[in-house]
Input
Amino acid sequence: MAVFAWQGRNTRGELIKGSMEALTETSVADQLLAINITPVHIEASVGVANGAHSTHRFLQSVWLRLSGQAVTSEDVELFSRQMYTLDKAGVPILRAFSGLEASTAKPAMVEVLKDVRESLSQGRELSASLAQHPGVFGAFYIAMVRVGEMSGRLTEVYLRLSEHLAFERDVRDRIRQALRYPSFVLIAMSLALVLLNVFVLPVFAKVFAGFNTQLPLVTRMLLGFSGWMQQWWLALIGAVVGAALAWRAYLRTPNGRYRWDRRKLGLPIVGNIILKATLSRFARSFALSSQSGMPLVPALTVVAKTVDNAYIGSRIEQMRDGIERGASIASCAASVGIFTPVVMQMITVGEETGELDSMLFEIAEMYEREVDQSIKGLSAAIEPILLAIISALMLVMALGIFMPLWNMGQAAMGRGG
Output
C-alpha cells in the first residue's frame, strides 16, 4: 500500500490534515467520507524526505514486531474495553486518556495514546484523532467511533467494538491452532529433505561410484538433484527470496490482490473456510454499523474495507452502488452472487420486517458455526494428504538408496544381473 497525505474539513468546517495507507486515492476519500471528513486534497507522499521517513517507519515497524512491542489487535481490544468502562463511569475523555497512558506498559501503545490525547486537547474529535493512526485503528473502528460521537452512543460503541475484536481474535486463534500441526510437519519434512540432499546422498554417491554398473533411474534422479542442490544452493536461495519478494510486490497491486483473493476462495479444503469467515465478518460488521445508526451507503463503504478480501470487498461495493441507486438490499445482495439461498431468504425477511440488524447477526452466527465446524475438521482433512506426501517421498528415497545396495548384494551372491 502507498501512503497518502490528505487534507479535509470536519463537520465544523475546520481544516485537518493527516496521512493514511491505502491502495488508491479513491480508497482514502471513501474512508474519510465514512467518518464525515470532506476531503479537500489527497496526494501520494513522494520525495526523498518522505521516502526516508517511510523506510524508517518500515524498519521501526519490523523491529517492533520482532521484539513483540508492536501494537496488536489485542491491545486495541483492551483499549476499547477500558474506554467502555471509563466512559460508562463518566470520566472525562482527556483524563481517561491520561490515565490509560500512565497505566499502559507497552511503549508503542503509550505513544499512540499520547498522540491521540494531544490531538484531542487541540479540539479535534476523537474519530479524527484516531484516524491519524490507521495502522492501529482501522477504517471500521474509526467509522464506528464517529457514529458513536454523532449519535451519543459512544459507550455502547466501545462495548460492541471490544466484543467484535474479541470474536475476530478467537477465530484467528482457532485457525492457528488447527494449522499448527500441519505447519510443523511441513517444516520438518523440508528440513529432512535438505539434510538428505546435502549430507546423506553425497556419501551414497561415493559408494555407488565404485559399482561400475548403471544405477536405477530413481537413484540417478536423486543423485542428480542432490548434486544440483549442492552446486546451485546459493542461486536457489536467491531465487526463493526473489520469488517471495516478487509475489509480495504483486499482491500489493490492486489487480494482484484482487486476483489472489478471488483464487483463495476456490482453494481445496481451506477455500470454503476463507469464504465463510469473510462473509461472517461482513455480516457482523454490517449489522454492528447499521445497529449503531450508520447510514447504509457509508456503512457498506467501510465494511468493504474490513472484510480483508478484495474480491468480496468489490462485491460489497456493488451492493452499495445498487442501494445508492434506490434498489433494495435483498436484490443487490442477490446480484453479487456470493450468498446462499438460505442467507438471501433471511436478508429478505429482515428487510421486510425491519429487523435486518437481527437477521444479519443471525447470518453471522450461522457462518461462525460453520467455520467452527470446518476448522475442527481442518486437521483431519489435511493429515491424510500430508501422510500421502510423506509416504511417497520416503518410498522414493528408500528405492533410490536401497535398490543399488540390493542389486550389489544379489551380484555378490551370484544371483544378480
Remarks:
- Confidence is low (pLDDT under 50) at residues 47-59.
